[in-house]
Amino acid sequence: MNPLPYTPIPARPAPASVIGIFAWMKKNLFGSKKDMVITALIFFILLLFVPEFVNWSVWQAVFQNDADVCQQARGIGACWGVIHEKYRPILFGRYPFEEQWRPLVATLLMIALLVVSCIRYFWNKKLILAWVMVVMAFFGLMGGSLFGVHLGLTRVNTDQWGGLPLTIMLATLSIIFAFPIAILVALGRRSDLPAIKTLCITYVELVRGVPLISVLFMASFMFPLLMPAGTTPDVLLRVLIGITLFAAAYLAEIVRGGLQAIPRGQLEAADSLGLGYWKIQRLVVLPQALAHVVPGIMNNFIAIFKDTSLVTIVSLYELSGSLGLAINGDPNWRPFKIEAYLFITLIYFIFCFAMSRYSLWVERQLNRSHAR
Fold it and tell me: What is the largest CA-CA distance in the chain?
């Protein structure tokens, strides 16, 4: 038999896996010497602190709703009974105890509509009507009246609103109102009309030059001085306006960055088709500009959600403020503030993490047209 005219290639090992947990660890944790050193340092720190934290929070923790038992374990383990004892004043603030079903229902309605609004199938004109109805239902349930019409519920003044419902309402409405204002201001800063451009620049630079706490003080204490005698807008309305204007100024700069990323040729092409200014912005410019700055917009939304904690300084006790009232006012549970703060930290993290995940989903949807 004639020998083969070529020499067979020796068997080679199987290619390295590029998927799975081990491939991910090799790429992200041990990809280079520098990564290996950083990974080893992080694992060393975790080994120092995580076992102690688990021991404090789980093995030595007290889960009974008993302040005396918690006092005996103080300094040894966590007292999670404080959450069971104080979760209602933390979540609902100074709202009347027997009426707390109302903020619960109002908050669930708003959260449900937020979830629905994130689904593309429901993006139509009916969604706007749904938001109007839910916002009206929220204020009607919380206050007991709407536009001066009594709804048959016990009237609760806005200074008694607090906790998670107040946080979600302030953050949601501030985002809804700030977004269109920010778009108009961003367009105004790029306008060829000097008066409009100067006005928008002045507004943005003035608001960005002061902290939010100053804006809240102005809205709460100084704004009523500028009103006619005997006219004092509700403090909740004033705070909502202050947060909205503050957020809109920062959001306007994010949107302006997206506008500057649009090539000039697209505007010229739209002009050649005979489109007017507002049609060009609505159909050509804004869809692309907003797609470019989705991460920045979501960062701003998350910042608004967390900045609502500052309204405590004007006596509106949202989630973190209501925790202080609930814990500091009870000497039996006052030593266990750390556990209570971990509880609201988890709440803040859940909402912020959900927003960040949704932002990534939106980015993937928008990037489909650029995938190759």
Answer: 114
The Cα–Cα gap between 147 and 160 comes to 19
Q: Report the distance separating Cα 31 and Cα 102, nearest Å.
A: 54
Yes or no: say if 211 and 249 are a contact pair by the CB < 8 Å rule: no
Sort 106 into a burial class: Cβ within 10 Å, 0-12 / 13-18 / 19+. Answer: buried
Virtual torsion, Cα 353, 369, 190, 184, nearest 10 deg: -50
The residue extents of the domains of the chain are: 160-366
Q: Is 127 exposed, middle or buried (0-12, 13-18, 19+ CB in 10 A)?
A: middle
- Residue 110: C-alpha distances to residues 71, 152, 162, 168, 255 (Å): 39, 22, 15, 8, 26
The CATH T-level fold of domain 160-366 is MetI-like fold (1.10.3720)
35, burial (CB in 10 Å: exposed 0-12, middle 13-18, buried 19+): middle
Walk along the chain (372 residues) in steps of 10 and give the mean pLDDT of each run. Answer: 66 71 77 84 89 87 84 84 90 90 93 91 88 92 83 86 92 93 92 90 91 86 74 83 92 91 84 83 86 89 91 87 85 87 93 91 76 53
206 residue type, one letter: L
pTM summary value: 0.85
DSSP state of 146: E
Collapse the DSSP code of 315 into the 3-class scheme (helix H, G, I; strand E, B; otherwise coil) and give the result: coil
The DSSP call for residue 362 is H
- Residue whose C-alpha is closest to residue 158's, from 171, 139, 177, 175: 139
